[in-house]
Amino acid sequence: MELDEKGRGVGGELSIPFAYPGDVIEAELVNKKKKTGRLLSIVQLSPLRQDARCKHFGQCGGCLWQGLKYESQLALKESRVRDLFDDVRRIIPSPDEYFYRNRMDYAFGPDFTLGLKNGKATVIDLKKCWLMSDQSNLVTARVKQFVLARKLESYQEGIMRHAVIREGKNINNTIINILTSDKGEFPLEALFEELKDAVSGVTWSINLSPADRSYGDIQKTSGNDYLLESLNGIKFKVPVQSFFQTNTRQAERLLKTVKELLGDTDPGSILDLYSGTGSFGLYLADRAKKVLGVEENAAAAELSKSNAELNGIGNYSAIAGRVEDVIGDLSRQYDTVIMDPPRPGVNKKILKRLGESRPKTIIYVSCNPFTQKHDIGVLEEYGYKLSACQPLDMCPHTPHIENVAKMDRS
């Protein structure tokens, strides 16, 4: 049995979650069009297997690979990157196998349940999530009890949609974002009063989209509307709905990896594309003449400048806008480009612009090595050469891989 791109076992033509290489299994067809199946029984266990710690394993889709030994997970992830790129370094393991996440997005379900979804509808009522800390699990249980006591039913019968829990690992603080429909008022102040001994802020947001997403229009906040965190000594304010690497300790290693790949040479001026709250640019500022972050989310771009002030970094600035719209002549003004795009990869207009302007070095950080491979191929057509490739495991017990690639002008 092999694995597909989503980390599911492939038996015959079917993709089967929770089946691993070396398993002999029985499965049933779930969706003929999508060629997906369901694991019924394991006739012969793969030697790669281990007993999962979480009692929800096999139902909850949050930890598809928790049934794999961690060394097997690392080997499979590294081999995936090696299948795409020639010269690949050994994968960097996560410092923590469990309780490593600083954020979880939980869904409210029928009968006042709260947890992760099994498919599109069923909510697994989590008693304990092995990806978040024990303290976070206690906060989640208290949120669920609050909703139950007030009979706040789940969407669509009621208003409750999602609860997003975010916690600092290096700075002890926790914030919550409660997402509802617009069909009623959420008792925000009452929840904050109930939890203020454990959290620094609660935000209420409304999601009008039929899509199952944990993002909405912020209505109001009690306490802080941002998380405080630090990476390698640099402090960050992280707005309640903004992106931040979910594995804090491994994110510190990721930043160090990018700096190490730059080597001892002078990076000159750095252009940080898809800069978010500024983690890469701020960490590299001590090596650079100047750093400019480019971020579509205007609030995040402004916050990255505030984070620079918070840390006394004077050579960092940022602009708000879509990278493909604002890159223009910017790329000609910078010697080094750092980019950490979303999973679909880099817009072809950006790749063309980078190829034509020929910055000395490009560091490409990706959570999707498959789209990264395509984009690097485009840049190679402009004369760039892949000089280093470093995978990291940001998300143990999942198929997700982070990969850092360095490209130099040939």
Features:
OB fold (Dihydrolipoamide Acetyltransferase, E2P); 3 domains; 410 residues; globular; Rossmann fold; alpha+beta
List the helices and strands and how they pair.
Elements: E1 2-3, E2 9-11, E3 14-16, E4 24-31, E5 36-44, H1 70-84, E6 103-109, E7 113-118, E8 122-125, H2 134-149, E9 160-167, E10 174-180, H3 188-195, E11 201-206, E12 217-223, E13 226-231, E14 234-239, H4 248-262, E15 269-273, H5 279-284, E16 290-295, H6 298-310, E17 316-320, H7 323-326, E18 336-339, H8 348-357, E19 361-366, H9 369-380, E20 384-392, E21 402-409
Parallel strand pairs: 10-11, 15-16, 15-18, 16-17, 18-19
Antiparallel strand pairs: 1-2, 2-3, 4-5, 6-7, 6-9, 7-8, 9-10, 11-12, 13-14, 19-21, 20-21
Helix pairs in contact: 8-9
Fold and architecture overview:
The chain starts with a strand and ends with a strand. α8 (348-357) runs parallel beside α9. The protein folds into 3 domains: 1-49, OB fold (Dihydrolipoamide Acetyltransferase, E2P), CATH 2.40.50; 103-230, OB fold (Dihydrolipoamide Acetyltransferase, E2P), CATH 2.40.50; 247-409, Rossmann fold (3-Layer(aba) Sandwich), CATH 3.40.50. It is α+β, with helices and mostly antiparallel strands and 410 residues long. The strands form 5 sheets. It has a 7-stranded mixed sheet. A 7-stranded mixed sheet has the order 17-16-15-18-19-21-20, sandwiched between helices. The chain has a 3-stranded antiparallel sheet with strand order 1-2-3, with no helix packed on it. The chain has helices spanning 70-84, 134-149, 188-195, 248-262, 279-284, 298-310, 323-326, 348-357, 369-380, and strands at 2-3, 9-11, 14-16, 24-31, 36-44, 103-109, 113-118, 122-125, 160-167, 174-180, 201-206, 217-223, 226-231, 234-239, 269-273, 290-295, 316-320, 336-339, 361-366, 384-392, 402-409. The chain contains 9 helices and 21 strands. The longest helix has 16 residues, at 134-149.
